[in-house]
Amino acid sequence: MTTTHGSAKWQGGIKDGKGAISTKSGALTDYPYGFASRFEGKPGSNPEELIGAAHAACFTMALSLVLGEAKLTAEHMETRADVTLEKVGDGFAITSVHLALSARIPGANNATFQELAGKAKAGCPVSKLLNTKITLEATLQG
Fold first, then answer.
1. 73, 115, 96, 72: which is closest to 123 by C-alpha?
2. Per residue in 50-63, pLDDT tens?
């Protein structure tokens, strides 16, 4: 259906090296990333936050689709994806993603909302891509 791309550059060793991330759209152009931003909380991006943003965006769009199929339209949805990177064996792995959704959807009851949010979580292409535990906390605002 569609193919797009992101790219990364890197110079130096793992701890002293510096990288830059770019996207086809130009949303990111040579945006810095590196060991310090990934593991030490320093300024810059990292792969996990990018995966989190992609997962949150994909899930929220998937939920919009599922809501539309149920004849519902969101007034507002906001999703945060917490991506956990942990040492596993000799390397590292993304061990979980926790999606936290807050939504205002006129005409939706909580049971239907939870069912549709679960359907969106399962059907989201990024959820399907990630080989990790994915949890969801969905809050319907009144």
1. 115
2. 999 999 999 999 99
Question: Which one, of 99, 100, 102, lies nearest residue 140 by Cα?
Answer: 102
CA distances from 96 to 36, 50, 51, 86, 136 (A): 22, 15, 12, 9, 11
pTM for the whole thing? 0.93
For 12, the token pair is 């130096």
Residue 74 gets which letter from DSSP? -
In 3-state terms the chain splits into helix, strand, coil percentages (rounded to 5) of 35, 35, 30
Q: Are strands 91-104 and 133-140 parallel, antiparallel or unpaired?
A: parallel
Residue with tokens 């759209």: 25
Coil vs helix vs strand at 54: helix
